[in-house]
Design brief:
CATH topology of the largest domain: Coagulation Factor XIII, Chain A, domain 2
Shape: elongated
Number of strands: 36
Number of helices: 11
Cofactor: Ca(2+)
Number of domains: 4
Protein name: protein-glutamine gamma-glutamyltransferase
EC number: 2.3.2.13
Distance between the termini: 54 Å
Family: Belongs to the transglutaminase superfamily. Transglutaminase family.
Pfam families: Transglut_C, Transglut_core, Transglut_N
Length: 700
């Protein structure tokens, strides 16, 4: 009697991947999602008989063992094993069609499939199956009901990251590219590297926390090395990336950290990794984000007598900071904290001995429940700290600090992400915070303050020893600013477009709403700063005394000549922002007010010329055109372009582009995937770092 042997196995890849929404992955192997059936066709040397023993064996890890749960042996029509089930769909002669359903909380990762018949074991080629989280399965903790949201947060491989400043936000196109070659393998490598146990791999909370640690290179040789030094020799400047694909491919190939990242790069890569593994994820940008080193909910800003900001603080306000929200049920927490969870892979502060952050329930931040894991105090402070301004004055040769203002509504503004299914910014501040001044906000703040022990109101710079005792060093429950007696108000704006090479024409408007004659001393300064709040150059100051007959307003101009700032602009490798700070004091009432605004330079656009549609595998032409409308030569121009499913990342060296000159570059494109695809382009030069654009084309 011939023993039963397997002669072949068909993984029915096109049918399975369509049903599992995994047909996008550029990989030979079968990729499926947990908790959902997939089929395999087994060919045998003879017909299957009732007495035959046939089992599918799924093994995960180096040395799979049944006792450890890393080897699953599934027999048709038997009771399920660890929540997995297998059944015979149909028998047709020597062919046998089987259906396999993994458990909706199975560990994610790579499984080796062997088929056992009696004592024979058949090992198919490409027998490794990739098992991912499943937002389409109601029993998976990452389940997301809304179809359009899944399309955006799991399947969209392009998007935007919002940067700039609260005064002018702009979108930076980013290619996530979670389906590109080697990206899934890079994510699987990170999972193995994370040393998560099999049980821990079941839960996206553990997986997302581990990935937030592994996307930065600190303490684990992870994907990206962060640098804010302004000098990126020996690597790629953070401004020069336009997507995650090159980074993850390079990391997977070399297994060494890729140089260099800053927050939006970390967030872009973490977004790719989470979407790739099947966890819905979005990039979240917070403007005026507090980076507070002691969880005391206060950021100290030091100004000199000219109103210029000094780089002496241990804490800082970043013009923007980007992290991620991942979607999941939190089975480890009390009810009410499911949904979006903040995770952050920018290395800022250690959590449990590693540079990792989250998952922190966004609802916990809103409700002030900052005792919940993970890192909720840190995330709460990023969006809720107060900004305290100190004036540093030399008195008898010693530096003394005078508190001049407290801003309670300045931090954590315009929290932004890309809208679902649309190319626009969606403001999600209300998911993180109750409206300023509402009853709910006060209750949430009181709750948060009961878990955070704020220190007294003394400045925290390295010069703390020279501090004057400030009236009773205790912080009230909620910092209430005394309402000014004169209704003093300051506005800062630009009166002309901020083009590099032109004078910066700025204006400070002082308003007083109370009747009477008032004398106002105004100090204003203009500086260049990094998005991290670090001052790069002082450009100019103004000091005016103005008389106002209230209620009225007066505009004070502040003009900066191009040669004051162009040298700094060309010598740094990062994008810099224009920071304007104003201090106003009413002599009669001693009312003081401080206001700061960050603005970005404005640039001429890149235009993309190409057809609106194209046919699969049919070449089309794409041209990138840029006219230098500025009054300065742009030196060492590089054009970076990438189109997922169309062409790989390409760099054009353009040399110098004189004022008025037009640059044109062309590329021949061959689309390899159907549907809407995007081409992203970015131009960088010594003088400007941030011109980018994108254009969509529909492939039929």
């Amino acid at each position: 009697e011939s023993s039963l042997k397997v002669t072949g196995i068909d993984f029915l890849k096109s049918q399975n991947t369509r049903q599992h929404h995994t047909d996008g992955y550029n990989i030979k192997n079968l990729v499926v999602r947990r908790g959902q059936p997939f089929q395999v066709q087994v060919s045998l040397n003879r017909e299957l008989r009732p007495a035959d023993k046939l089992s599918l064996r799924f093994g995960i890890g180096e040395n799979p063992l049944k006792i450890r749960g890393s080897l699953l042996s599934l027999k048709p029509e038997r009771e399920d094993f660890n929540g997995w089930k297998i059944s015979i769909v149909e028998k047709n002669g020597k062919e046998c069609l089987l259906s396999v359903t993994s458990s909706p909380n199975a560990p994610v990762g790579k499984y080796n499939l062997h088929v056992k018949t009696g004592t024979n074991i058949y090992k198919p080629e490409n027998g490794v199956i990739y098992l991912l989280f499943n937002p389409w399965c109601e029993d998976d903790v990452v389940y997301m009901a809304n179809e359009a949201q899944k399309k955006e947060y799991v399947l969209n491989d392009t998007g935007y990251i919002y940067v700039g400043s609260a005064y002018n936000i702009y979108d930076r196109p980013w290619n996530f590219g979670q389906f590109e070659e080697f990206v899934l393998d890079a994510c699987m490598y990170l999972l193995d590297k994370s040393k998560l146990s099999l049980a821990e791999r079941r839960d996206p909370a553990n997986v997302s926390r581990a990935m937030s640690a592994l996307v930065n290179a600190n303490d684990d040789n992870g994907v990206l090395l962060g640098s804010w030094s302004g000098n990126y020799i020996g690597g790629t400047s953070p401004m020069d990336w336009i997507g995650s694909v090159t980074i993850l491919q390079k990391y997977y190939k070399t297994k060494k950290p890729v140089r260099y990242g800053q927050c939006w790069v970390f967030a872009g890569v973490l977004n790719t990794v989470m979407r790739c593994l099947g966890v819905p994820c979005r990039c979240v940008s917070t403007f005026d984000s507090a980076h507070d080193t002691e969880e005391n909910l206060r950021v100290d800003i030091y100004l000199n007598e000219k109103g210029e900001k000094l780089n002496i603080s241990f804490d800082s306000v970043w013009n923007f900071h980007v992290w991620n929200d991942a979607w999941m049920k939190r089975t480890d927490l009390p009810n009410g904290f499911d949904g979006w969870q903040a995770i952050d892979s920018t290395p800022q502060e250690q959590s449990q001995g590693r540079f990792q952050c989250g998952p922190c329930p966004v609802k916990a931040v809103r409700e002030g429940d900052v005792y919940l894991p993970y890192d909720s105090k840190f995330v709460y402070a990023e969006v809720n700290a107060d900004r305290v301004y100190w004036l540093v004055r030399k008195v008898n040769g010693k530096e003394k600090y005078f508190k001049i203002a407290t801003e309670t509504q300045d931090i954590g503004k315009k929290i932004s992400t890309k809208a679902v299914g649309q190319n626009r910014r969606e403001d999600i501040t209300h998911e993180y915070k109750y409206p300023e001044g509402s009853k709910e906000e006060r209750m949430s703040m009181q709750r948060a303050y009961s878990f955070i022990r704020p220190s007294g109101l003394v400045p925290r710079s390295g010069y703390a020893s020279t501090v004057q005792a400030l009236s009773g060093n205790t912080l009230p429950m909620v910092l209430n600013e005394p309402v000014s007696k004169t209704g003093l108000h300051i506005e800062i704006n630009n009166t002309e477009p901020l083009h590099p090479g032109n004078p910066l024409e700025l204006a400070i408007t002082v308003k007083i709403s109370t009747p009477g004659n008032w004398t106002v001393d105004l100090t204003g300064s203009c500086q260049l700063q990094y998005y991290t709040g670090k001052v790069q150059a002082n450009l100019g100051t103004t000091k005016e005394t103005i008389n106002l007959e209230g209620p009225s307003e007066m505009q004070i101009p502040l003009k900066i000549a191009p040669d004051t700032y162009m040298k700094t602009l060309s010598s740094v490798e990062d994008e810099v922002l224009i920071l304007v700070t104003a201090i106003a004091e009413v002599r009669e009432t001693k009312d003081k007010l401080t206001k700061e605004t960050s603005m970005r330079f404005e640039y001429p656009p890149i235009t993309v010329q190409m057809p609106e549609t194209a046919k699969l595998y049919n070449d089309f032409n794409c041209a990138f055109i840029f006219k230098n409308k500025l009054n300065v030569t742009l030196e060492n121009c590089k054009l970076l372009v990438e189109g997922l499913g169309i062409f790989k990342m390409t760099t054009f060296e353009q040399g110098d582009i004189m004022p008025g000159r037009i640059m044109k570059s062309e590329i021949i494109c061959t689309p390899t995937r159907l549907g809407e695809k995007k081409i992203v382009a970015k131009l960088i030069s010594n003088q400007i770092k941030g011109i980018s654009t994108e254009k969509a084309i529909f492939i039929t």
